[in-house]
Amino acid sequence: MSSRPSLDTLRLDAAELGAFLVEAFPGRAPGEIAAIVALRPGFAQLQLAPSEKTLRPGGLISGPTQMGLVDVAAYAVVLAHIGIVPMAVTSGLNIQFLRGCPLVPLNADAALLHLGRRTAIIDVRLWHDDVARPVAQASVTYMLPAG
Questions:
Q1: The pTM is what?
Q2: DSSP letter string over 46-115?
C-alpha cells in the first residue's frame, strides 16, 4: 500500500476482486465461493448459492457456512479498497445468528465502517429474501500488513 487507504476509493473492480478470490481459495468448486453482486466505495454485496453440503440438521444453512460467507465478504470489501494484499487477516469476528436460514441463495452486505493504516472494521449482514430481515449480523476486524 503506497498511500493511505480511503473509504471513498476502490482500488479493484468486481472482476479483479472476483478473480483474486477464486485464486486465493484454491480447491473450491465453482459456486463454493460467493459471487460479487455489488461493489462500491465502502460497500460490497456477495451472494452464496449454498449446496446440500452446507446444511446442518434441520435443513438450515450451517453456522460455519454463514461465518465463512461473512469472512469472505469482509475480506472482499477490504481488498477492494486496499488492493491485492493477501496477508490482510481476520483478527476478530463476532456473529449473532438471528433466525434459521433455509437452503436458498444467501446474501452478505459488507459495510466498511473504518479503514485505517493497520486495521479495518466491517459490519456484515446476512439475509436471503428480505434485506430488512437479516438472518445474521457480524462485526469483523481485519489487521492490515504494514505498507
A1: 0.92
A2: EEE---GGGEETTTEE-HHHHHHHHHHHHHHHHHHHH-S-TT-EEEEEEEEE-S--BSS-EEEEEEEEEE
